Amino acid sequence: MDHVHLTYEPLNLAEAQRLVSCSSTGATSIFVGTTRDTFDGKSVVRLEYEAYVPMAEKELKKICNQIRMKWRVRHICIVHRLGTVVFFCCVLVLDSCRVVPLLEASVIVAVSSVHRKESLEAVQFCIDSLKASVPIWKKEIYAEGDGDWKENKECKWSIE
Q1: Number of CB atoms found within 10 A of residue 104's CB
Q2: Average per-residue pLDDT for the chain
Q3: C-alpha to C-alpha distances, 107 to 16, 90, 92, 158, 160, nearest whole angstrom
Q4: Phi and psi, residue 159, nearest 5°
Q5: 16-20, 36-40, 50-54, 55-59: least confident range
Q6: Between the CA of residue 143 and those of 41, 75, 111, what are the distances in Å?
Q7: Which of 2, 9, 19, 129 has the smallest count of CB within 10 Å of its CB?
Q8: Beta-carbon neighbour count of residue 12 at 10 Å?
Q9: CA dist 131 to 1, 43, 100, 155, Å?
Q10: Under DSSP, is residue 144 helix (H, G, I), strand (E, B) or coil?
């Protein structure tokens, strides 16, 4: 079964793993994409994702079909965050501020198969294909207050 989901809610790694787990498979491979804390020497404080949801879902389903044509896999789960993904959160505790790293996931790809080779290769193909063809855009917001929309170098509509 294929599970494709775009959401404004935090991603749940345990749920993604549950969706692909099966007693007939011997391998579950998972990729979790999280934000880096810096880019080009600037401190990243959050990411903002936007998507053309109908087209993005259609492209993600195409990727699932392509995976099934190339590898014998049992289940596929692709979930991607939309909206704001925070990198650090400051929590007030008894008049002191402690930084709690949230490291929220932006994307989770999980694939199960009978053997590890198929699931590992399928996960790699999936994330590479997602970056190249799915209309999801990312903006990095920096500690200085400015931000940049990021260009995926893998994206087929990217301008050189």
Answers
A1: 17
A2: 86
A3: 11, 23, 29, 21, 25
A4: -95, 130
A5: 36-40
A6: 11, 40, 36
A7: 9
A8: 14
A9: 22, 23, 29, 6
A10: coil
Element (H, E) at 60: helix 53-70
User: Which tokens go with 36?
Assistant: 């880096």
Which tokens is 62 given? 């195409």
What is the Cα 56 distance to its own chain's centre?
13
Question: Which residue, 123, 23, 158, 112, is CA-closest to 149?
Answer: 158
Which residue in 28, 38, 146 sits closest to 88, CA to CA? 38
Q: What is the mean pLDDT of residues 37-58?
A: 89
Minimal CA–CA distance to 107: which of 56, 53, 19, 34? 34
144 vs 63: CA distance, rounded Å = 37
CB 50 within 8 A of CB 56: no
Q: CA 29 to CA 8: how far, in whole Å?
A: 24
Taking only the tens place, the pLDDT of each residue in 112-152 is 999 999 999 999 999 999 999 999 999 888 888 888 887 76
> Which residues, other chains included, contact 92 with Cβ-Cβ below 8 Å and sequence gap of 6+?
none
Query: What is the pLDDT confidence band of residue 99, given thresholds at 50, 70 and 90?
Result: very low
Considering the entire predicted model, what is its pTM? 0.86
Report how far apart the first and last C-alpha atoms of the chain are (Å, whole number). 37
